[in-house]
Amino acid sequence: MLLGRYNILLMDEPGNYLDLPSLEALEGLMKDYGGTILFTSHDRRLVENVAEVIYEIKDSKIIEVRTDEERV
Description:
Layout: E1 8-12, H1 20-32, E2 36-40, H2 44-50, E3 53-58, E4 61-67
Parallel strand pairs: 1-2
Antiparallel strand pairs: 3-4
């Protein structure tokens, strides 16, 4: 797996401790990234603006909350 060419970012709370301009820059970079990003965040604004598919852990189960097609 380490020798392959994969285009995946794994991010844990990427917006923590960032000021607003830095958070907006991060959001833009994440939107423009050409690969897959798997990230966790409590920042609903970041999730809503960046994520195409949202999963939530509820009652010890992972459920799909929304896909990009459901955005209005």
